[in-house]
Structure prediction request, 101 residues.
Amino acid sequence: MKNYTTLSEAINDLTKKGYTYNFNIKSDYIECAEHNLQLQPDEFEIDEVYRFQEMSDVDNESILYAISSVHNNLKGLLVNAYGIYAETASAVLVAKLSLNK
Prediction:
């Protein structure tokens, strides 16, 4: 895995590598709005994970997941805050995302 200085640098580089869709966390799945798809934890893989913290605000931390779904022929990115701003998700989804931190 490559080391990135900023979140935007990582997003730009991973997009060039084919991670072109955007995923969002829902209660027990991730969603790809562009394809109106809901992916359960067993329907996607986390290929890469990167953490970022803004130097000016230690409470502003984010995590970037490069995600692929072979079954749906999709590659995309999920950006999520962690710490006090983290989204609420089911235990199964949290476990899937936590495996790669």
Notes: Strands lie at 21-22, 24-25, 30-32, 37-39, 45-54, 57-69, 74-81. The radius of gyration is 13 Å. The chain has one domain: 7-98.
